[in-house]
Design goal:
The chain has helices at 18-29, 42-54, 69-83, 106-127, 154-174, 201-205, 216-227, and strands at 9-12, 33-38, 59-63, 88-91, 136-140, 180-186, 238-241. By secondary structure, the protein is an alpha/beta fold. It has a single domain (9-188, 217-235), classed as NAD(P)-binding Rossmann-like Domain (Rossmann fold), CATH 3.40.50.720. It has a seven-stranded parallel beta sheet, sandwiched between helices. It is globular. GO terms for molecular function: 3-oxoacyl-[acyl-carrier-protein] reductase (NADPH) activity.
């Protein structure tokens, strides 16, 4: 039985857990072979690879740090060489540093920008060398790019807002080559980093119109739409999957 992404190859940065793992698995379920990067937990990465293979697709985990531009470029080139092509890039790896302005050092600010903005730029620049018409670049942003209800998010919200600008710029530049570029902005999502039963969860739920957290699969569904043929006429777009948090 044919699937919408049969024959496609995807690279997901930060794909060993949470939203990244859900995206990697959804793309595999839709027919893509999936490579993903991870930073620390080799055991979690191995589990995701096995689940990709259980879906009948090729899977590979590569240890890499989004802050290392040479290493990230090498991963992109490795995917194209070993899998023969690269059709979909999902920039998911991210840094999440929350601190009051007085306690936010320049090192933390620069690190956040390096991981959340420079990394996607480097990966996209490397990926387009291998992409043909129909290529997809999708970044995972944040609802904090539009609405910041809590203090301490200056670095994080700045980086995710910059990622929106990068998406629009690349969307305009790559449109003539038939490559679409979009960003999905999750809201509160039930992951180990932000559990739906955590100490601040009830307050956070109150900021959404739906009154609940998303599941990682909800974010992955939006990515899958943009990665597939039905998303072919969407580019430069910011899509909020945040339960109405940004209303």
């Amino acid at each position: 039985m044919s699937r919408v992404l049969d024959g496609k190859v995807a690279l997901v940065t930060g794909g060993s857990r949470g939203i990244g793992a859900a995206v990697a698995l959804r793309l595999a379920e839709d027919g893509a072979d999936v490579v993903f990067t991870y930073q620390h937990r080799a055991d979690q990465a191995a589990e995701v690879v096995e689940r990709i293979k259980a879906a009948g697709r090729r899977g590979l985990a590569v240890q890499a740090d989004n802050v290392d531009p040479d290493g990230l470029t090498a991963v992109v080139d490795r995917v194209a060489e070993e899998f023969g092509r690269l059709d979909i890039l999902v920039n998911n790896a991210g840094a999440f540093i929350v601190a009051p302005l007085e306690d936010l050092g320049l090192e933390e600010f620069d690190y956040t920008m390096a991981v959340n903005v420079r990394g996607p730029f480097v990966a996209a620049k490397a990926a387009v060398r291998h992409m043909t018409e129909g290529g997809r670049i999708i970044s995972i942003g944040s609802n904090m790019a539009e609405h910041v209800p809590f203090p301490g998010f200056a670095a994080y919200s700045t980086s995710k807002t910059a990622l929106v600008g990068l998406t629009k710029g690349l969307g305009r530049e790559l449109g003539s080559r038939g490559i679409t570029v979009n960003i999905v902005n999750p809201g509160p999502t039930d992951t180990d980093a932000n559990p739906a039963d955590g100490p601040t969860a009830e307050t956070i739920k109150g900021f959404t119109a739906l009154g609940r957290y998303a599941e990682p699969a909800d974010i992955a569904a939006a990515v899958a739409f943009l990665a597939g043929e039905q998303g072919r006429y969407v580019t430069g777009a910011s899509i909020n999957v945040d339960g109405g948090f940004s209303i």
